[in-house]
Specification:
The chain has seven helices and 13 strands. The protein folds into two domains: 1-45, no CATH class; 74-281, Aromatic compound dioxygenase (Protocatechuate 3,4-Dioxygenase, subunit A, Sandwich). The chain is an alpha/beta fold. The strands form three sheets. The chain has a six-stranded mixed beta sheet, with no helix packed on it. The longest helix is centred in the first third of the chain and has 21 residues, at 23-43.
Length: 285
């Protein structure tokens, strides 16, 4: 390494990682190095621009916390999260969408048929669905991790007036793969713009709005885990999602229902909204 030049630097750096034991990790580091150096070559990156890029990452780290990931938000607004979701798609399975920056592990477990409404204001919604494989066979060991924002558009991490874990839970499906959950209709909201990602959006003159959605992750033994979102067909921001997460197959119709037995069983008002949510998981690769 005594004679490093602009022509041999990239190959020299890639060779320095050639002893990584894990083949896949070795490949990822190799290609990351290759494309990162190619970016610097193509743009003729200056010292000032390099320093500002490093400072941008520092600011993202400083504003991140256990309940907020600025790096996830950065991945979202750059479209990387959505691209990874699309690359992971499998025929016949429910499409994936972005995880978002407000997912936290360890949400409370609740039974299917429970209600998250509590003291929350907002329009009552019944979510009902079934988890199956791509051939329609129920997956009785499936579980769901569910989260959403409140009627004011904020997640509990953004709003000190909400209790921790408000409007989120984990559910194990019933023996036939079905599940029910009473909650409220989510609202469109602005992604956080008080950090470096907000700086990027402002300089790009981009909207920071996300259409209203539920977040759901679904797992079942022997099947690929699903991270997805469910959108409201009436939302005005469907075509301008700041994180490119909308898929046509994930846009749902809210229908008005007034079944007395269901309302009594789920703790819903006499008239409520309902959406049907079939979920299909692909087999594990």
């Amino acid at each position: 390494m005594k004679n490093i030049t602009r022509d041999n630097l990239t190959d020299t750096v890639k060779s320095s990682f050639a002893q990584i034991d894990d083949e896949r990790l070795r490949h990822l580091v190799n290609r990351l190095t290759h494309h990162l150096h190619a970016f610097a070559h193509e743009t003729q990156l200056t010292h000032e621009e390099w320093r500002e890029g490093i400072a941008f990452l520092h600011r993202a780290a400083e504003i991140s916390s256990p309940s907020r990931s600025e790096f996830t938000l950065m991945s979202d607004v750059l479209g990387l999260s959505s691209l990874v979701d699309l690359l992971a798609a499998r025929p016949g399975a429910t499409e994936g969408s972005v995880l978002g920056p407000f997912h936290t592990r360890g949400s409370p477990w609740m039974d299917s048929g429970s209600s998250l409404i509590g003291a929350n204001a907002g329009e009552a919604v019944l979510i009902r669905g079934q988890v199956t494989d791509v051939n329609g066979q129920p997956l009785r060991e499936a579980s769901l991790d569910f989260w959403q924002n409140a009627d004011n558009g904020m997640y509990w991490q953004m709003d000190d007036s909400q209790p921790q874990d408000n409007l989120r839970c984990q559910i194990k499906v019933q023996a036939d793969g079905r599940f029910e959950l009473a909650t409220i209709r989510p609202q469109p909201y602005l992604v956080p713009t008080d950090g470096p990602v907000g700086e990027l959006l402002r300089v790009s003159h981009r909207d920071a709005w996300r259409p209203a959605h539920f977040h759901i992750t679904v797992k079942a033994p022997g099947h690929r885990s699903l991270i997805t979102e469910v959108f409201d067909e009436s939302d005005p921001w469907l075509d301008k999602d700041a994180v490119f997460g909308v898929r046509a197959s994930l846009v749902c119709h809210y229908q008005t229902e007034s079944d007395p037995a269901t309302a009594a069983r789920m703790g819903l008002p006499a008239q409520y909204k309902a959406i049907d949510l079939p979920i299909r998981l692909a087999p594990q690769d």
